[in-house]
Design a protein that fits this description.
flat, Alpha-Beta Plaits, alpha+beta, 32% helix, single chain
């Protein structure tokens, strides 16, 4: 992928961690898909599924090696999701995810990078995960900054 490891400053301590956090911005890279996408993915041949998973594991390791990895998770299929609301007594009321929902979150990465452009390059790499027959993919990846607090204009 060509990610360049972020240089680490000599020494350790809270001040340096604070400096690093000021110079970088967390972004979430989200993979979404439709019910039809999920159904097609579930029908891929085992060797294609294996190649896709191996790509994702290698990709995560590249992010770790480059020092930008924060976390990554794949999510269960949408038919296992529940919508939860608080009832009048504060207890959870659950409902199935609405079938008319057009897209579902499939998984995500949280990365800590120095610029939006770096996040976009990483997202493009994730987008190219192999699909059926090993053909390079082009799945859409939504990139959004992770906010550690409310925007200043709202405070």
């Amino acid at each position: 992928m060509g990610l360049t490891p972020r240089p680490l400053e000599a020494g350790a301590g809270a001040a340096q961690n604070d400096l690093k956090e000021e110079m970088t911005v967390k972004n979430i890279l989200m993979i979404s898909g439709t019910k039809a996408n999920f159904e097609r993915y579930a029908k891929w041949p085992k060797e294609d599924l294996r190649a896709n998973v191996e790509f994702m594991h290698a990709f995560n390791q590249e992010l770790k090696d480059a020092g930008v990895f924060v976390s990554a998770e794949g999510l269960a299929f949408p038919d296992q999701a529940k919508i939860v609301r608080a009832g009048s007594d504060g207890q959870p009321i659950t409902d199935e995810v609405f079938p008319e929902s057009k897209e579902f979150l499939a998984g995500y990465w949280i990365i800590d990078v120095e610029s939006p452009e770096q996040a976009y390059k990483i997202a493009a790499r994730a987008s190219a995960a192999p699909g059926p027959g090993g053909i390079r993919g082009s799945m859409p990846i939504e990139v959004r900054q992770v906010m550690s607090s409310a925007p200043k204009e709202l405070l």
